Each structure stands twice: as C-alpha cells, then as structure tokens.
Amino acid sequence: MNKENDEDYLCVTQDLGYDGNRDRWVGYDPNNFDHIYREYEKIVDEQKKRKAEKLKKKYEKQSIKKKKEENEENEDEEEGGDAEDSELSSDSEKDNDLNDNKQNNKKNNKNEKNKTIARNLRIREDTAKYLYNLNLNSAFYDPKSRSMREDPLANIKNNLENSNYYKGENYYNNTGDAIESKKLEIFAWESYKRGENVHFNAQPTQLELMYKEFLEKKNKLIKKKQEDILKTYKCENITKENNNQQELIHSEVYTEYKPVDQIDSKKNNKIKILSKYEEDIYISDHTSIFGSYYDRETKKWGYKCCKCTDKFQHCVQS
Asked: Which residues pair with residue 295 across a beta bridge?
C-alpha cells in the first residue's frame, strides 16, 4: 500500500499541550486488549478444571482408605470388647484434638485481621503528601510512584521554622544515614568492577565489613605518608602545640609591623628553618651563593658578589 498516493490515508496530529504530551496514559484504549482478557479467562477455566480433577482423586483415595479402616475395625470387634473400648477412647481423643486445633486457628485468624486493621489505621493517621499544600503551583506529586521530590511548603518556610513538616524526598535522601548508604553502594560498584563478588542488597553485612576494613587501611596509609614527610624534613618531634608563629613564616626576612619612626632598618634578623639541604655555604671566597645572579646576555647563573658565571672560579673581589 503506497501511503503517498492513497487519498484515504490521513495523518492525524494532535497538540495535547505540555501536560498531555507527558501523560503516561495517552493513547491507551482498553478495547485493544480484549484478546488478552479472553486468553486470561481461558487460563482460569483450565486451572479450575485441573483443581476439580485433583480434588476428585483425593476423595477417591480417602474413600479407599476409609473402607480399609472399616474392614479392620470389623475384624477387631470380633476379637473382643476390650479392643472396642480402646478404639473409642482413641477416637474421642482425636476428635478433641481436632476441635482444639480449629479453635486455635480461628483465634489466629482473628488476631491477623486485627493486625491488618491496626496497620491501616496507623497509615491513615499520617497526612497524605498531596494535602500539605493545595496550591497548584506547589511541588509535583506523582500518583503512580507516590513520590513528591520537592518541598511542598518551600514558599511558606518562614512561618513553619519551628514545626515538623514534610520537606520532600530529595531532602531526606541527602541527609542522615542515606548518605552513608550511598557511599556503601558506590563502594560495592567499585569493588565489583575489581573482581570481588559483593552486592549492596544481597550481601549487606559482608559489604559493611569490607568498607570498614577499607577505611582503616586508608587511614593507615595517610598516617604513613605524613610520617614519611616529617622524616624527610626532620620534623618528627615537632608537634602542633610547640610550633611557633616564626617557624610557620615562609620568608626568611624578619619584618616588624610598627610605626615608621620606630623601625630599625639595620636589623635584618633571619629565622632558621629546618631543612634537608645545607644552606648559606659560600665556596671559594665568595660572599654570596651560586644562583644569586643571572646574566641575561649569556643566559647563565652566577655569583652576585663578583658577577661571575663559573661556579668553581675564585671570587675576583676578595
């Protein structure tokens, strides 16, 4: 069938609006599912027939057993009257046991009904999410998933600061123990990628133990790194309490923050900072270190005192 040349073919376009285009049940026609209903009815009828056949077989077996028992009882009656008394007592005991079991089952059923009623009442005591704020512009409530992610009372928060009210599922999913559960889930994903058989829902206790061990190892590694850094710079015995402000200064020049008249320009005190390398060592009669001067023409480093770029040459000014 060529749709382009067919005059009877119509392409219907509908502009249902913002809500209509996002409706989950648009285009649903229950008449299109009649064949599914018929198949389901046939399946139910066949199940009923099979159940009836099973019940017939059970009744037949029970009738055969009863006949055998009756024959045995007749034989026992012929043997003597003592056997009859014992059988009557046993039958009466069985009947009493059956009656007791029936009464207990009835009581249990009543208790279960009461439990379900109490549960429903407890749920009904809580106000529904969509009844917190009846304004049309408030948070969206999805009836199919029964979720309200945003805060329904976001515009009225100032009046309800001291009261307990529903703050939306996004708030509860990002506070409290929910954050820790997310961390556990991420840890489960990463560990599964590395080849460990761990699942967030199937093996929660094993996952928690692994996560605790992981955190302990991580903290130990961090402490080792800190200790190694202190060893390299020979700062093992230094603690935070004993550290002075002067030792934390980055520059070696001592500065005083005083009025201009009181500052002594001659003072140029230096602070000794612990370091791994040797400092202020002057070679071959130089008064400055190598690297304190840079010659732009030759693009080489040298000594500031004599402006010499050869490291092992003696100082000219001395």
From this structure: 300
